[in-house]
Amino acid sequence: MSRSPELLILVDENDRETGTMEKLQAHREARLHRAFSVFLTDGDRMLLQKRADGKYHSGGLWANACCSHPRAGQSLAEACRQRLMLELGIPEDRLPDLQELFSFTYCSPYENGLTEHEFDHVFLGTYPEDGPLSPDPEELSALRWVPLQDLSRELQTQPELFATWFRLCAPRVLEILNGKE
Question: Three-state DSSP class for 58?
Fold first, then answer.
């Protein structure tokens, strides 16, 4: 049985839907599409994932708890829940409540000819550091809880260890968490 293509939601600069496109084609053509990034915290620590080396871009780089693209006909809330279960293996009955903090657009070309051009919705939730996780090795190679202060310092001193979108939105998430925004 053949797998149906993953259709991303194309949007304009105001996040209004303009159509759909197959995932790799959208990345080859650098088409603006809807995406999301989920950040999870437990007090003064944030959960980071190291993307699997085999990912089509940004493999081996650190990023937020999970991120992806909602598919055609799928709400952001539904997509976030699905990815938390798929990537991190969070049981459905333990999924955290998420709050959308902000959204932003960015365009990042990669050496393999693909480009992420995303209208990224950033969500925040609380999840206990000792909560059950069963990460998918095809999605990520490591997880770590990092103190917020350490993360801020790492972003300044070693930005090359982090995925593009994370370097762009994590400082604002940290400001919100620290009550500065």
Answer: coil
35 vs 43: CA distance, rounded Å: 26
Residues of the chain with pLDDT under 50: 1-2
Active site residue 129: no
| pTM of structure | 0.94
Active-site position among 66, 67, 80, 169: 67
Instruction: Identify the bridge partners of residue 100 per DSSP, sorted by sequence position.
Output: 123
How many helices and strands, by DSSP H and E, does the chain display? 4, 9
Q: Contact at 8 Å (CB) between 91 and 132?
A: yes
Structural contact between residues 163 and 80, judged by C-beta atoms closer than 8 angstroms: no
Query: 44 near 8, Cβ under 8 Å?
Result: no
Q: Is residue 151 a contact partner of residue 174, using CB atoms and an 8 Å limit?
A: yes
Catalytic residue selected from 87, 116, 118, 139: 118
Q: Residue 139 is encoded by which pair of tokens?
A: 């999605």
Q: What pLDDT score does 4 carry?
A: 67
- Residue 43: strand, helix, or coil: coil
- The reply to whether 118 belongs to the active site is yes
Helices 164-177 and 148-157, packing angle to 10 deg = 140
